Amino acid sequence: MYGLDRACIYIDAQTDILYVRERVKIIFPHSFSESLSNHTNNYKIDKKNINYIKLEEKKIKRLTTIKIDFSYPRFFSDDNIYPLSDETRKIIVENNLVKLINSLIDYEITAEAVRYEYLEFTTQEVVGNFYKFHNIVSYFFKALTRKYDDLDKVQYYNFNQNENKFYTTGFTFQPMSGWKIKLYSKGHENNKKNTRKVKGAILRLEHRLTKKIIKNYFEFNSIKYITIENIKDCIQNTISQTLGQILIDEVEKSVEVLKEKFLNFRCQDLDSLVRDNLEWIFDYKILDDIVTSSSTKCYRQIVFYRSKIKDILNHSQQRASPQRDFFSNIERLELFFANLILFNCKVKCDTKNHLAFFCKK
């Protein structure tokens, strides 16, 4: 599932800031105003889908910049569990914003004049237990860190009191100015703040794109001319290709590390080798293939190794904190590529064909 979540629009209005201030107070009498300076006001609205309205006076040009921060899905719902994916509903939300702007100024504008300050494009998938995606979340974060000199990054964890363990709930990462990624458990976030609870985890990936990036990707920055499909296609043809490839590179890097670590290993060292290299083991199938392909032992001994590795990983994931799963990550990665990153890539791993990625643009 994909669509729009939060956004901010702006317009440079030919209306005096004093007039706009009075109109905000009349229309939103319970709004809270922060006077950032003599020329700037920030009004906290928190009504329906409007988060805040910011006014900035441009004296030289005699303009008032009006910025409205809002939520697309909360125009139709009390929460934003699901992003807005319908083009017709997008137009309804934006027409309502144009109507609001026209009520704040002393002349009328159309949607064509309204620009994006930023927008959040979201992909998400219901995944059951979020912790089972720990390895994918972790590898994705490492891949981003290797690729970009990040401007800002934060990892999120929570604590399960019943099991006395931490578990991953996501991260934020800013690869470059104008683009920020947030990968997290939408279900956990929603259930802390809202009365409507979500059963099962929702894995959500958000791209926050500012006007700098939007102008680079689209011919226009007007809300009227940018559709949800436009945004999806643009991300799929550019950002998704990069993210998919760096995640593939990170998984392949772990394979090379494991090949080196398990080269000519001794049977008595197998237990410690597996436990010492858990961070490099993306999936059981990968290590199973490495050991099977590289070992010179007889078939019976190889079968013993494979069984022992499976037992060690099962035992390790039962005790691990943060919680994780070493099995079925190949299948989860394929789902993550297709539904979260929007990257067309099949992933296979077995002892005949080894680890292989079949990707299409």
Name the features:
10-stranded antiparallel β-sheet; 40% helix; 361 residues; two-stranded antiparallel sheet; alpha+beta; single chain; 12 strands
Report on this structure.
- About 40% of the residues lie in helices and about 30% in strands.
- By secondary structure, the chain is an alpha+beta fold.
- Helix 9 packs antiparallel against helix 10 (about 300-320).
- The two termini are about 20 Å apart.
Give the SSE map.
Elements: E1 2-13, H1 17-27, E2 32-37, E3 40-47, E4 50-58, E5 63-71, H2 87-104, E6 115-128, H3 134-147, E7 152-160, E8 165-176, E9 179-185, H4 186-193, E10 201-210, H5 211-217, H6 228-237, H7 239-261, H8 270-276, H9 284-294, H10 299-319, H11 329-341, E11 344-350, E12 354-360
Helix pairs in contact: 3-7, 8-10, 9-10
Describe this structure in a few short sentences.
The protein has eleven helices and twelve strands. It is an alpha+beta fold. The longest helix has 23 residues, at 239-261.
Strand percentage lies at 25-35%
Helix content: 25-40%
Gyration radius from CA atoms, angstroms:
25 Å
| Count of runs of 4 or more consecutive helical residues | 11
| Overall pLDDT level | 92
